[in-house]
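ok new one. same drill as before - structure tokens go in, u give me an amino acid for every spot. 291 of them this time. try not to just spam alanines like last time pls lmao
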């Protein structure tokens, strides 16, 4: 391919991939609704040719849905990415995944076999697909676990991450409960189970870390200030590296047992401290209300 000319329109090139049933089509439709040019199920070897076309037509935001339906050509994606980088375009990867249970539930409702299922069980197809996608997931810039998201929630999440124009690195501080599993899309995971649990304080048990009484109890623990300072330094120290790697969004997971008391209070406090350091941060409480 010919290198990008100095007067060429800069192209934001996104590859949407992930597990069948995890929401690739919803993500693609969301971007389409926000004026992205979207192509579905394009063979990977045609990506460089697509780039030439979109430059000629002066499109600036292009998303391509790529998945295992393309067969053996799918394995050439890393080589194709390297070819695109030589032209001055570094594709970003949005990877969508979900739990086996969520995919089984969704596939049973549409009664459609998975691409790699063949004549075997649905779970066999899911596991083959996970294996085929493992390398690509490792390369992903953004990973979204859609297990507990409905279509509207997923659409809003994609829009938050990819539609809002910003050059600044964006952070999400996500509280969660370890009993419900570690968020698969977390880049950094911090454990606050070393703090006394308000669950064992009768007057605080039924409240959440978003309420002043619980937050005061959690944040007044003597061991917390040093932890928060270390967490701030850790996140801030990683910013230059993330920016150098072209990453635009980072998720910091804060976990306690159930995701109701300690992680929510500490998550809100850490987010406020990171904002004071000039970072762009929003807060998500993944498991609040599940207890």
């Amino acid at each position: 391919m010919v290198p990008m000319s100095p007067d060429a329109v800069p192209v934001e090139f996104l590859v949407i991939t992930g597990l069948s049933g995890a929401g690739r089509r919803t993500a693609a439709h969301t971007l389409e609704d926000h004026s992205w040019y979207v192509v579905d199920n394009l063979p990977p070897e045609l990506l460089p040719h697509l780039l030439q076309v979109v430059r000629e037509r002066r499109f600036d935001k292009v998303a391509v849905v790529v998945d295992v339906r393309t067969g053996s050509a799918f394995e050439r994606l890393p080589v194709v990415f390297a070819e695109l980088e030589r032209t001055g375009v570094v594709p970003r990867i949005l990877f969508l995944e979900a739990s086996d249970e969520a995919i089984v539930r969704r596939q049973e409702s549409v009664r459609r076999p998975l691409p790699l299922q063949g004549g075997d069980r649905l779970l066999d197809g899911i596991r083959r697909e996970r294996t085929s996608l493992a390398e690509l997931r490792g390369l992903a810039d953004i990973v979204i676990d859609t297990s507990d998201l409905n279509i509207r929630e997923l659409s809003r999440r994609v829009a938050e991450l990819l539609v809002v124009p910003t050059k600044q690195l964006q952070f999400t501080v996500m509280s969660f409960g370890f009993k419900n599993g570690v968020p698969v899309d977390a880049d950094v995971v911090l454990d606050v189970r070393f703090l006394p649990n308000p669950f064992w304080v009768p007057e605080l048990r039924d409240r959440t870390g978003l309420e002043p009484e619980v937050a005061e109890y959690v944040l007044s623990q003597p061991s917390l200030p040093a932890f928060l300072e270390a967490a701030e330094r850790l996140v801030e120290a990683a910013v230059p590296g993330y920016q150098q790697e072209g990453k635009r969004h980072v998720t910091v997971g804060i976990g306690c047992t159930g995701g109701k008391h300690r992680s929510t209070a500490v998550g809100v406090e850490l987010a406020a401290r990171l904002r004071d350091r000039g970072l762009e941060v929003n807060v998500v409480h993944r498991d609040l209300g599940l207890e």
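The CA atoms of residues 177 and 257 lie 5 Å apart. and btw Residues 170-285 form one domain.
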